[in-house]
Amino acid sequence: MADRILVRQTALLDGLPMMNEIIEFTPPEITYKTADSEGSFVATDDTVGIEKLKWSLKVRGDHKKVSVSLAAFQMKPGQLNVDQKGKTTDGMLFHEAHSLFSKVTRVKKDAFKMGEKPSVTIEGVCTGYKLTDTGVLVHDINVDTGKTVVFGTDLMGEAGIL
């Protein structure tokens, strides 16, 4: 399996384009909620759901523009799109497109350092998250509609809930 090398990372935060400002992006992590399943000789866990879809974006640059864009995310969800493009060590191109419908839960200005551009870390929780990897659907989760496609599998269909 070839390693991926990220060449370009861009974001669009509620209409504010960011390209060179992105320091790092942490997409939502798919973590399953489980409940103990007892009653047999060997206990086990049953999957009962998915934890909150938390993400973070660390950016540098004009805090005023970022703050104004974030104002819309405070009381109601807004749209954040992050595109990651690059190539593998085998020379194959890849493109990951993250689409997050989310509220912002935290905005933290990072420590100021002489000679460096100031940065801010933005964190949020998604109510909708879609990830496509080089044209292939990986995740499509919508809390409001119950749509839950994780790693390409429709979990509601697997559970017999349509």
Describe the structure.
It is a single chain. The chain has about 160 residues and is mainly β. It has a single domain (about 5-35, about 45-135), classed as Pnp Oxidase, Chain A (Roll), CATH 2.30.110.20. Helices cover about 5% and strands about 60% of the residues. The protein has helices spanning about 65-70, 155-160; strands at about 5-15, 15-20, 20-25, 30-35, 45-50, 55-60, 80-90, 95-110, 120-135, 135-140, 150, 155. The strands form 2 sheets. Strands 1, 2, 3, 6, 7, 8, 9, 10, 11 and 12 form a 10-stranded antiparallel beta sheet that branches. A two-stranded antiparallel ribbon has the order 4-5. The longest helix has 8 residues, at about 65-70. The two termini are about 35 Å apart. The model has no long low-confidence stretch (mean pLDDT about 90). This is Phage tail protein. It comes from Veronia pacifica. InterPro entries: Tail_tube (IPR006498).
Question: Keywords for this structure?
Answer:
ten-stranded antiparallel sheet, Pnp Oxidase, Chain A, two-stranded antiparallel sheet, 162 residues, 7% helix, single chain, mainly beta, 2 helices, 12 strands, Phage tail protein, Tail_tube
Helix content: under 10%
Structure classification: mainly beta
Low-confidence stretches: none
Spatial separation of the terminal alpha carbons:
36 Å
| CATH topology-level fold name | Pnp Oxidase, Chain A
Shape: globular
Mean pLDDT: 88
Task: Count the E strands.
Answer: 12
The overall number of domains is: 1
- The radius of gyration is 19 Å
Number of helices: 2
Strand residues, percent: over 45%
